[in-house]
UniProtKB/TrEMBL annotation, chain A:
Gene Ontology terms describing biological process: ATP synthesis coupled electron transport; electron transport coupled proton transport
Organism of this sequence: Monopterus albus
Family membership: Belongs to the complex I subunit 4 family.
Name of the protein: NADH-ubiquinone oxidoreductase chain 4
UniProt domain NADH:quinone oxidoreductase/Mrp antiporter transmembrane: residue ranges: 113-403
Domain of life of the native organism: Eukaryota
Any one cellular-component term (Gene Ontology): mitochondrial membrane
TrEMBL record, chain B:
Pfam families noted in UniProt: NADH_dehy_S2_C, Proton_antipo_M
Any single GO BP term: mitochondrial electron transport, NADH to ubiquinone
Topological relation to the membrane, as annotated: Multi-pass membrane protein
Domain NADH:quinone oxidoreductase/Mrp antiporter transmembrane: 23-287
Record protein name field: NADH-ubiquinone oxidoreductase chain 2
């Protein structure tokens, strides 16, 4: 663990001491090397599932794909931010990279934490760099409101989680995940267990986000700069999913009837948010609502607590992380050229930037869960698990899959096909950097087709 | 102010608190409190501005009332009990009376209305002293009184956190915001006072560091309203970088030190099964966080539409490094980085 944490920590002095010309290449290379080392986590060699164990941190098949995704995303974020920060003064570029690195550190420590208190502290720690990214480097006035919504939605739900964790420590004497998974059912009085269950999971449901408490997400995603959108979509939402999977171990006897309203809300949210995608004019907002829709499926799958559900949830989280981040990168290539997120104003890009259209096609196809990509794997496993739980859910999931396909194709056709607008006089050609960025998003997705067991999680 | 006069006043201030801290008899404790009150009055009124004079007058009346009530209750207790020991007070009525007097001195709800007006009326340095140093002596006396009626402290603590949160929401004057922040933090301290004196002391200590850092920062930026904060980036860019972290530490966000007292107070309350209290306190802290966030938006995270001449500060009028401003790095370091050191910090206090 230290071989990843210390280089990541030292990325901060790197970003401050590198010369101006070499700042971005150096940090990029440095973060790629860290990613290379983090790939070693994917091999789980332990009988008890916990490997790289030390008193405070460990990895297991649930957290290692998420950890690798987090480490994979840092070089991609650095790659994506290079262009829009080129006009900023050097100190601000260094501060930006430092923010990304502190976010990375807190995310690694959050996913690798064995003690739930450390997980909580790191979960909250991710809020400050993200807040600063959104409110300082966002581009419109609404970013301040977005930052406030983001901070307060997350905090209002995670403070009850803190109290629940403290109460849990009081009751069981420990908050270590290694021990809690071996404890029996926790005796709680019948009326209190509803509150217990809700407060434990509310923080993660808000983070995922669940449909009723999802308002922060479109605001935050739209107003954030590209690195902010990428990390939010790819990793921060998965923090909610990961937290839920960990907490539900502790809550299992209570969860039988209490999860019904949340499953229904999640499934209804899949339908609602994918429908609203069809009416969006703002491209980033469409991708944000698509994130809510996919995460609704993940939330429902985690809440039903079956092995297939958890497996499907993890696969979809990883696949959606890569896909959603790729979509935001594509939207950003549009934004950097036209400084507009309105879809009608940026149509017909296939005529102008044909290779980018290829990436748009592959990413939109991944978003609509085309076989054999892991997106489909995850969605299919989740749909099967939900079907096994109750066959009425096929209405929601089937309609959801249909509408997902519709809006993904809508997004592709709106941005790529159609007449090129008359006002677009000149567009910069695609940079190799952008091609590299998208390749690095899509290549893992394609490679995961061949070895999905890396992201299957510990249910198998 | 004349330096000799300043030395005399500051020494008397220190003497007053030291007297109270070292006393076991109520008379000496009262004496220390009064010396402290009298010493700070000239500091408050040194600007011959009506608001400063009004603030000094209000402060004097409030503190004198509290001290007189304290003395009255102490003498009645001595009459009934036969001794005037602080730590062995047992009469419930007079214990409550003394507690209320001390809470009036500290500025806790519902006896908080003087705080925003007083701190607004005085200069930033004096406001710092009123917010931090003047809280120590009453706090120590509160620690020593046993058998305070528990619901009293809990209700006043929770009310203070709520009022400190709600009161600061509509303010644009920074000193009033810091006054309400002080009320809220003292509410947290009061909540845990009856259960764990070590945690209360730790919370007070962290509060003093954070508030000192904030006041010194504001003094350096010469900012007294939210609008004046927006030109900080032209005067002191480094402070601009660090100020949001300092404010979010006041708000109690991990991984900054301000999270530590809140965490441990919530842990203690949960262990004693006061979960509703813990929940209300935790959620009310979000109210305070909203105005700290607003301040950090003004300082760093947004750029006000300023006049260009206001932004060009090539001829910088830096004040000579005052003793107070050289304390800023220490205060800031303690405000931001103390969370991982909490276990060792707690052992120092326990």
């Amino acid at each position: 663990m230290l071989k990843i944490l210390i280089p990541t920590l030292l990325l901060i002095p790197t970003s401050w001491l590198a010369k101006a010309k070499w700042l971005w290449p150096t940090t990029l290379l440095h973060s790629f090397i860290i990613t290379l080392f983090s790939l070693a986590w994917l091999k789980n060699t332990s009988e008890t599932n916990w490997s790289t164990l030390n008193p405070y941190m460990a990895t297991d098949p649930l957290s290692s794909p998420l950890l690798t995704l987090t480490c994979w995303l840092l070089p991609l974020m650095i790659l994506a931010s290079q262009n829009h920060l080129a006009q900023d003064p050097l100190v601000r570029q260094r501060i930006y990279i430092t923010l990304l690195v502190t976010l990375q550190l807190s995310l690694i420590m959050a996913f690798a934490a064995t003690e739930l208190t450390m997980f909580y502290v790191m979960f909250e720690t991710t809020l400050i760099p993200t807040l600063i990214l959104i409110t300082r480097w966002g581009n419109q006035m609404e970013r301040l409101n977005a930052g406030t919504y983001f901070l307060f939605y997350t905090l209002a739900s995670s403070l009850p989680l803190l109290i629940t964790l403290l109460a849990l420590q009081n009751k069981t004497g420990t908050l270590s995940l290694l021990i809690i998974q071996l404890l029996g059912p926790i005796p709680i009085s019948p009326y209190v267990n509803i509150i217990w269950w809700t407060t434990s999971l509310l923080a993660f449901l808000v983070k995922m986000p669940l449909y009723g408490v999802h308002l922060w997400l479109p605001k935050a995603h739209v107003e954030a700069p590209i690195a902010g959108s990428m990390i939010l979509a790819a990793v921060l939402l998965k923090l909610g999913g990961y937290g839920m999977m960990r907490m539900m171990l502790i809550l299992s006897p209570l969860a039988k009837e209490l999860c019904y309203p949340f499953i229904i809300l999640a499934l209804w949210g899949v339908l609602m948010t994918s429908s609203i995608c069809l009416r969006q004019t703002d491209l980033k907002s469409l991708i944000a609502y698509s994130s809510v829709s996919h995460m609704g499926l993940v939330a429902a799958a985690i809440l039903i607590q079956t092995p297939w559900g958890l497996t499907g949830a993890l696969i979809l989280m990883i696949a959606h992380g890569l896909t959603s981040s790729a979509l935001f990168c594509l939207a950003n290539t549009n934004y950097e050229r036209t400084h507009s997120r309105t879809m009608i104003l940026t149509r017909g890009s296939q005529m102008i930037l044909p290779l980018m259209a290829t990436w748009w096609l592959i990413t939109c196809l991944a978003n609509l869960a085309l076989p054999p990509l892991p997106n489909l794997m995850g969605e299919l496993i989740i749909i099967s698990a939900l079907l096994g739980w109750s066959w009425w859910t096929i209405i929601f999931t089937g309609a959801g899959a249909l509408i997902t396909a519709t809006y993904s194709l809508y997004m592709y056709l709106m941005t790529q096909r159609g007449p090129v607008p008359n006002h677009m006089i000149s567009m910069n050609p695609s940079h190799s950097r952008e091609h590299l960025l998208l390749t690095l998003h899509l290549l893992p997705l394609l490679l995961l087709v061949f070895k999905p067991t890396t992201i299957w999680g510990s249910a198998y | 102010m004349n330096p000799y006069l300043l030395i005399v006043l500051l020494t008397s201030l220190g003497l007053g608190t030291a007297l109270t801290l070292s006393s076991t008899h109520w008379l000496l404790a009262w004496l220390g409190l009064e010396v402290g009150t009298l010493a700070i009055l000239p500091l408050m009124a040194q600007r011959h501005h009506p608001r400063a004079t009004e603030a000094a007058t209000k402060y004097f009346i409030v503190q004198a009332t509290a001290a007189a009530t304290l003395l009255f209750a102490a003498f009645n207790n001595a009459w009934l009990q036969g001794h005037s020991d602080i730590q062995h007070m047992s009469h419930p009525l007079f214990t409550s009376m003394i507690t209320l007097a001390l809470l009036l001195k500290l500025g806790l709800a519902p006896m908080h209305t003087w705080m925003p007006q007083v701190i607004q009326g005085v200069s930033l340095n004096t406001g710092l002293i009123v917010s931090t140093w003047q809280k120590i002596a009453p706090f120590i006396l509160l620690l020593q009184i046993k058998q305070i009626h528990p619901p009293l402290l809990t209700i006043i603590g929770l009310a203070s956190i709520l009022i400190g949160g709600w009161g600061g929401l509509n303010q644009t004057q920074l000193r009033k915001i810091l006054a309400y922040s002080s009320i809220a933090h003292l509410g947290w301290i009061l909540l845990i006072l009856q259960h764990s004196t070590a945690l209360a002391t730790y919370a007070l200590l962290i509060y003093i560091f954070m508030t000192s850092a904030t006041f010194i920062t504001l003094k350096k930026c010469k900012a007294t309203t939210i609008n004046m904060l927006t030109t900080t980036w032209t005067k002191a860019p480094t402070i601009t970088l660090v100020a949001p972290l300092m404010l979010l530490s006041l708000g109690g966000l991990p991984p900054l030190s301000g999270f530590a007292p809140k965490w441990f107070i919530l842990q203690e309350l949960t262990q004693l099964n006061f979960i509703p209290h813990a929940s209300i306190a935790a959620m009310a802290a979000l109210l305070s966080l909203s105005y700290y966030l607003r301040l950090s938006y003004s300082i760093t995270l947004s750029l006000s539409p300023n006049n260009l001449p206001e932004c060009l500060q090539w001829r910088v009028n830096y004040p000579i490094s005052t003793p107070l401003s050289s304390a800023l790095p220490a205060a800031l370091a303690l405000t931001l980085f103390l969370l991982p050191l909490t276990p060792s910090a707690l052992t120092l206090i326990i």
